[in-house]
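Shipment paperwork, digital attachment
Item: protein structure file
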Amino acid sequence: EYAERTVVLGRGKILADGPTRVVLNQEETLRATNLKSPQITRITRNIWKDGGALTVEEAVERYKSRCAEFI
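Attachment content:
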């Protein structure tokens, strides 16, 4: 499970504030604050251009549903 909302602070300012899925896919903002999104998010973001999965379970479900499109 994960938080519904994520806030990223840097140098005393709010750099990102919003749904966790959106914030964890803002790679440049995270990099600027020496943060990393979860490994599964980074991996699946490179596979699916519409954003990465937040959990392994979500990645598996998305993979299954996309494979079903080709069957």
